[in-house]
Amino acid sequence: MTFFIPWLVDAARLTGYPVVEVPGWKGRGHGGMRVTEGVVCHHTAGPKVGNMPSLGVITNGRAGLAGPLANYGLARDGTVYVVAAGCAWHAGASSWAGFNDLNDEFVGIEAEDDGDGKWTDAQWDSYPRLVAAILFYCRRGSERACGHKECCLPKGRKPDPGGINMVDFRNRVNWLLGDPLQRIPRFSNPPAPTKKKDHGMQDIIIPRGKGEIRLIVPVGDASKTTAKAFLSAVVTGAKGTARCFAQSDSGGIADWSWTINMVNGRSERPWRELPNNTTQVNVQYDFPGGGTFCIETMAK
């Protein structure tokens, strides 16, 4: 007995990134899936430019190999394309976690990259979120995520996804699955801080375009652990603007605006110390090329 996966679009939407339903996805496939036991990660080896230029090939196939060639496409701006709910020819001869010939057992993701491993900031953020969302719906753990380069037979037959250390990738997926409904959606919970000297740091990746985010940052008298906190921002490839509102439970809002320019190919990095008693910061941004907000904290 086989089936077509009904929840593909729901998993994609859980990431918080834009989702495009490719017409016909619900019935597209080389027959149905036998089981859904994991995820295989790929790169398209497509053009160097364009957001999702390989979508047609993923959907319809190429000479000698009929489509669909994956269940999802992942664009350079993090948009998730839902392509096929049935079996896709993405893995070929393969083996992982005791399963063989994974086409009708593992969901396949083709992420747009020409193979050089130079992923966009949005893809570094969205790729593990999408994998975690799929595994959440499969009720499987991070060990069921593999790169094509890991599961292909014979070994060494495939290099994808290029530039991604799959051990680190699975560690990130595992963290997201630790509290999936809170951690998988972007901006709902920033990544765990990584230490730099005596500061805790959190980077929040921002995709291209306009939007709003809310950052939970208790500071000073509003926190038992954080004495001071600093917010900074950089942009990627184009000038950006941001307006920030630091709020406290005791009342009052501090607000300021940034215009972040590119100077000699590098982004300016404006920063501001958050006022004592801040509990959260709401940010309205317009980053045409994407960017990153960084929160640095000093412990009491």
Give a short synopsis of this structure.
The chain has two domains: 8-183, Peptidoglycan recognition protein-like (Lysozyme-like, 3-Layer(aba) Sandwich); 194-299, Jelly Rolls, CATH 2.60.120.1540. It contains six helices and 21 strands. It has helices spanning 8-14, 55-60, 121-138, 148-151, 166-177, 180-183, and strands at residues 19-21, 38-43, 61-62, 65-66, 72-74, 80-82, 95-96, 99-100, 106-111, 145-147, 194-196, 199-206, 209-216, 226-235, 240-248, 253-260, 262-263, 266-267, 271-273, 278-287, 291-299.
Keywords:
300 residues, alpha+beta, Lysozyme-like, Jelly Rolls, 2 domains, six-stranded mixed sheet, five-stranded antiparallel sheet, 6 helices, 21 strands, 17% helix, elongated
How does this model look, in words?
It contains six helices and 21 strands. With 300 residues, it is α+β, with helices and mostly antiparallel strands. The chain folds into two domains: 176 residues, Lysozyme-like (3-Layer(aba) Sandwich); 106 residues, Jelly Rolls (Sandwich). A hairpin with a 2-residue loop joins strand 3 and strand 4. The radius of gyration is 21 Å and the shape is elongated. About 4% of the residues have low confidence.
